[in-house]
Request: fold
Amino acid sequence: MPKYRILTLNNISNAGLKKLPGDIYAVGGQLADPHAILVRSFDMNAMVIPAGVLAIGRAGAGTNNIPVKLMSGRGVPVFNTPGANANAVKELVLSGLLLAARNIVPALHFVGELQGDDATLQKQAEEGKKNFSGIELAGHTLGVVGLGRIGCLVADAGIKLGMQVLGYDPEITVDAAWNLPSQVKKAHSIEEVLKNSDFVTLHVPLLDATRGLIDGRRMQLMKHGATLLNFAREAVVDAGAVLEALDSKRLKYYVCDFPSSVLAGHAGVVALPHLGASTREAEDNCAVMVVNQLRDYLEQGNITNAVNFPNVVMPRESPYRIGIANANVPNMLGQISTRMADTGLNIHNMMNKSRGEMAYTLVDVDSPVPESTIAQIAAIAGVLSVRYMPVA
Reply:
């Protein structure tokens, strides 16, 4: 009988699911009492999540559809797949740049409404094409707000297209900085990007600090006739401010991945149905990545790419391993070590890391761990979850 039950709330690519061995994992959309949940876009915020859930894996980057804070309080990691769909989003952003620069959408609508024989169509096309004259991307400035994996790829692509690239990210990571092309000019503020860019593309997560990031005030700073692209999150941009900017001609196009009732039907809006990660390759990459992370946690206790836990990966040196999630407060390690010592357990290896208010510890010991010891550790004030992972 499988040891773990994995509930799927969306269709997850078989490229990932086939990495869950049938003798260890039962996988399905109707499983009761799951040990873990795999999800893509399903909104879990109103869902009653069973108490036995040990982990949640999101086959994608954003986790706004998951109650992360609630899971943190239970000591449950929420995994995501940063970068797995980055190339897919980059290619869609490039499509958006070209759609705007060459006025392709209105041109398509124009041709679609033509009527008559070939000679009539050709005459109408020749007479009308002047209304859709565009610009070339080379030589124009692309502003990139957010320089994570996607932002870096977009910046690199812009440079290869001959664009001047202006980037801004106050939270840029060391890895992202290494991957950023040297030709990218560093901006010191969002305002600097908006004032100096012909095209501005957003690649930031939706947080309290980024909700409404591009509002009416900032929209007024943009160059007259600029294009704003949003393939990040809908709420990063104030739709009402976009409408005002389009109507005043300050903004030529708003290209986004999120249909909006406020902007529906506006000639300056190019809205796509959330296609950013909708490629076969991206779905496969996300599924494989999240399944590998989930397996490594369930079987070994290792944590990689959890949005609410530190990364903790420790090679196993003993058949007897304990994983402990706890509040990041003083003397936790001392109390945990004391409980183990009191029951005669010798610690072979230990790794402890923290992230904000959360800490996580992996401990390999030299002998089997009694259930009473697990219970004693779980009873320590501040301990959120304890898992014993012996290898048979």
